[in-house]
């Protein structure tokens, strides 16, 4: 992981789409031209220095005796696509049955907060390491450097770049970078790698959207305990996040998903409500206790920096959320999940989200490297396809973001379905034989374990 694959992006001038972001008493206005910023987009050494701290585990026993990878009976499901505005907003809005309110009980020390702000550094310099210029024009980000929406956009762009560089390093492939615009305001940057050497489908997407909430969205938010008072029936909002789903080819390398997001809304009196949400979870095809411990312990260490109860609470929340009710099993072995994080201060909540976002490389890449050369049989590949079928079932039947996006007029369906695997399989009345590794996996999914 010492070298970094260069990613060149054309020099470009960006329109100042967010120059008139909704502030107190304002409403979104059409974008207007602003000063152009020319950059040569080169990877920053930031990722390399942080990556040096990743802990690598020793290789375990190979899961199969013969090399293989035949995708018999595979069903093509989705194309290489990215989040659209509908899908992005959905993750923030469609959460009517949330389980608990995220509370923060401890404070970040002033010294730590100051150090973190200093580490955020110069906007222009940090942008050089991104996969693409940010969604918001750089000149606007520089003018609004101290505002949370700017700091969060820089964090999600950084998270996207760090994870993509790490995945490119192990796969040898290159992400396709796709920028999209939302006519109502904002846009996104989708990075997709398909049919790579290691990853069958990998997507890492950023979205930054703004505008006015619909009545349906506002109603859903009110059902979550949010008391929102709009002006002339309108509620200006700004929503942003980074989301990723990785589907490897080798059944001994788990699928991983993460999402970290920020939502800000302005009420009639000019006051703003804000909150964070997100999480990271792992979906293995076969149980490996060492992998499970590493993944969960990395998340726990990040949580423990902020509150001793965070990991316990958010791990339970994750198990409850990623649950396939009609199957009576969880989607995977969980991780952490939280929403409506809005206390005790914005600075402390952001610090926690930053800690979580910076675990995505160290909690997953050591597992990938560990199983990179594991052999596998056709039967193991078939079991992976069956488990992917369960992944699809959860996303289409229960995932709030996907359901909301599919119900939103004008949505880009390809983008909403980015999280689905390239191939999957459904077998009628499939039941693994007792005493097999497949049966062991199913038992864990029906009875979630404490891995740390």
From TrEMBL:
It catalyses: coproporphyrinogen III + O2 + 2 H(+) = protoporphyrinogen IX + 2 CO2 + 2 H2O. GO terms for molecular function: coproporphyrinogen oxidase activity. Keywords: Heme biosynthesis, Membrane, Oxidoreductase, Porphyrin biosynthesis, Transmembrane, Transmembrane helix. One of its GO terms (biological process) is protoporphyrinogen IX biosynthetic process. InterPro entries: Coprogen_oxidase_aer, Coprogen_oxidase_aer_sf, Coprogen_oxidase_CS. It is an enzyme of class 1 (oxidoreductase). GO terms for cellular component: cytoplasm. It holds the Pfam family Coprogen_oxidas. Pathway: Porphyrin-containing compound metabolism; protoporphyrin-IX biosynthesis; protoporphyrinogen-IX from coproporphyrinogen-III (O2 route): step 1/1. Coiled coil: none annotated. Its EC number is 1.3.3.3. The chain crosses the membrane at residues 74-94. It comes from the Eukaryota. Homodimer. Belongs to the aerobic coproporphyrinogen-III oxidase family. This is Oxygen-dependent coproporphyrinogen-III oxidase, mitochondrial. It comes from Salarias fasciatus (Jewelled blenny). The gene is cpox.
